[in-house]
Structures are given as structure tokens and as C-alpha cells.
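Hi team,

As requested, here is the filled-out complex form for the adenosine monophosphate run. I kept the field names the same as last time so the parser does not choke. Let me know if anything looks off before we queue the next batch.

— J.
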Amino acid sequence: LGAPARRTLLRAVIMGPPGSGKGTVSSRIVKHFALKHLSSGDLLRDNLQRRTEVGVIAKTYIDQGQLIPDDLMTRLMLNELKNLHRYHWLLDGFPRTVPQAEALDETCQIHTVINLDVPFETIKQRLTARWIHPGSGRVYNLEFNPPKDVGLDDITREPLVQRDDDKPETVTKRLKAYEAETKPVLDYYRKKGVLESFSGTETNKIWPLVHAFLQTKLPEVSQEESITPLWY
Ligand code: AMP
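And here is what came back:
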């Protein structure tokens, strides 16, 4: 990425529950606009892999499905953001708590929080769509590649099962936890007047809205130019 042309650099956050299409929307944003995308989950996984001190401490929390303590998480992210101060940026997965949002505010003003607002039932359908044939490991998805007969493996005709993670009870629990955790953060940004919610049941319908919104804030990357030439 070259140095951005505008003087005001975008400071944005993207939020959305698991299954909201946040990953897809984020990757499309990165493809269309010249900005740096910083994901707390990716940053943590990178630290885990490299066995940094932060990574070793973080692992104990992640393995238990717990959030990383605010001070550690904040230090990690703010430190990383120092390297990005000359770029437009979009945070993903951070801030996840009000203390994190407050700590971020002390360093810089957030202009926009993109909130993906997808109905609970839609998300639940997506996250519970995966069924597995335990004998072979064949994976089906009720939305993209459903079995010929509901609940049965195409080849052996044996029953399909769901992983614990994909069961409705587990998914509901996860979504409720996410909601309880992030609602205060959304409220925090709503009060500041920077929350922009995009609602819909399909990522392909939400994306054009996000795209149009960001076009008012950022220069767009020419799609032709961004393709690497064949001879490169
Ligand atoms: P994710 O990929 O966003 O689901 O993050 C994976 C894990 O990293 C989470 O389950 C948390 O344990 C941890 N994590 C990611 N972001 C944060 C954050 N902002 N605050 C605390 N923990 C986080």
C-alpha cells in the first residue's frame, strides 16, 4: 500500500457475531480499499504460533474459550497500531469490551464502527448447517451441499451427526455470549454517534451497502491495477 492521499486517516472498527459474514465483508473491504486490516484473532494466532510471551499467556485463555484480559489485549493491539499510524485502518475483533474501547479512545478517535446486523435465526441456520458422516469424515452443508436425503450419508446411507460446536444448543450459547459481551461496546459507540449498522440476511446484499458507505470515506483501489500481472 502506498501512503494514503487524504490527510484524515480512517479509523474504523468492524463488528458482527460469528456467522454474520464479517470475514467475507472484511476481505472484500481490503480488496476494494487501500487500508490495513488488523484482526485481534489473527494477531493472537500469529503470536501463538511464534510462541511469543504474549502468545504463551494468551493460549491458556483461548484454550478455555475465555477472553484475553483487557490490559494484555489492549497492549498488544495498541502496540501493533503504532506501526499503522500512517495508514487508514480497520480493526476486527477489537475492541470487544468497554474497557478496551476506552483504552483505544485514549490513543485515537474512532470515526466509524461498521456493525453487521444479521437476524439471530439466519445466523443460527448458517452455523448449524454442517453435518458429518463419522465413518468417512464426509462433510455436508444443508445450505451449500446438502445430502440427497436429510440426515443420511449419500454413499453409505448411514446417519449423519453434528459436531458439538455445530449443535443448536451450543450455537445459541455462543451467540448469546457474544451478544452479552459486545452489546455494551455497541452502546458505547452508539452514544458517541459513530455506529453504522448494516442489516440483512445475505452477505451479498449487505456488502453493497458497506461498499457504498466506505466510498464516501476512502479512495477506492482500482480493481484492474490490483491484479498481479502474469509475468510478475
Ligand atoms: P476470534 O478469532 O476473534 O474468535 O478470536 C479468537 C480468540 O481470541 C477469542 O476466543 C478470545 O479468546 C481471543 N480474543 C480475540 N479478540 C479478543 C479481544 N478483543 N479481547 C479479548 N480476547 C480476544
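Two things worth flagging: The longest helix spans residues 168-192. The chain has one domain: 11-215.

Thanks,
J.
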